[in-house]
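Known limitations

Files may contain more than one protein. Parsers should not assume a single record per file. Below, a two-record file is shown to illustrate correct handling: read the sequence, read the token line, then continue until end of file.
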Amino acid sequence: MKRKQLKLQRKRLSDQVIEELIARITSGELQAGDKLPPEPQLMEQFGVGRSSIREAIGALELLGLLSVRPGQGTRITDATDTPRSIGLSLITMGREKIRELVEARAELEQIIARFAAERATEDDIAEIKKQHKKLIQAQKNGAKLITADMEFHTAVASACHNTVFIRFFSELHQPIRHWMQQKAKYDWGFDRVVEEHEAILHAIEAHDADAAQTAMQQHIEAAGGKLAYAMQEIDANTKVE
């Protein structure tokens, strides 16, 4: 049965496409493993141009909801973390809102690092060191780098001993993980990440709140720069030839 063409009225048509695709996923109309129709069909279905379709798909791939493979088409990811568990309020943000989310993460993790430096117990510090060593080992093995990276940040968050901040961090965790998976496609090394994590660890171990906050700020700003580059790459790849 042919789907009725949608009439999209907002200025950012790609955002409308994103919201509609997410609605179909959450309703069960689109399920893990399902393949999206080809671009021409999506253009007709949504009543928008190729650039809007490509921008929407690029954004949803960046968030980890779609998997795009040349020659195999675009499919709904089969991750166990569904849009419901991530939170629609985060996923339905436009591209500028995603950048705002990165800014929010930067501010949140600076506060977390500061509190961790002030409140971390010996056990907390031991856990942060453990996760830092895992990242170093993962870097040598070239495997599970993103998992090791995020577990380090989780250990720091736990050390802040503030349940509200920990909850906020948890809400941001999965979208951030998806971004990291996408930016990894552009072959960014983890040398700087290891150094930045080490600076955070040393500051927390020394219970130097100012140094911990500064080290985290520098680390997150560097990560934000990488995200901006990834989004530029997506923009370049979604331009109509």
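...continuing to the second record:
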Amino acid sequence: MDLKEEDILGSEIGRHWYYRSKAAALKRMVAGLEARRLLDVGAGSGFFSRRLLTEAGAESALCVDIGYASERDDSVAGKPVRYRRDCGPTDCDLVLMMDVLEHVEDDVGLVRHYAAKVPSGAHFLATVPAFRFLWSGHDVFLEHHRRYRLGEIEATMRTAGLELVRGSYYFAFVFPLAAAVRLVARDAAVPKSSLKKHGALTNAALGAICAAELPLLPINRLAGLSAFVLARKP
């Protein structure tokens, strides 16, 4: 999760249409796994793992991020959440990599690094920004190395030794508008976030549009602003 975006939204992150919609898509992607112990890599505040703790059956979360100034323990809904700069071997059964792999040069290496820490049968859920032609100052601002087609992020997970379970695009219904805005106004040389705070009406409208797309999530391999991939360690 991008700490820079968390800094922009602050306490409003839980109300922002984009993050609420991505959390809903995450729940849809991992439904049925019965994951209990989460390892949230590049977790930031732990927004996504905290959602799974409060709204799904997860029982604990280990949030790892090199950006933490210090390590601490917390709880959500009476469930433990640990914030660490790194971790050793763990029995976590679901690894979250939410908008993380685009930030590192060696994405395969990062997946392998954490795959070596979890037991066989553990699942990995990764999200990444989609389509190179959408590259803009937003990516420069967030210090991205790349954007992915769905087949590319799936290949990353396979090369790292994982078995693919399913993959799809999301944010397809807002894709045409977002693509048009970026293609018309983009200047890749100027680092600037495209994320903005919105009022309740805008958040409700865009959130409803994305919610209407959720039933198509399992089959959308055509287009979207984000690519989601679920994989499993053999």
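Parsers that stop after the first record will miss the second one. For reference, the second record is described as follows. The chain has a mean pLDDT of 91.
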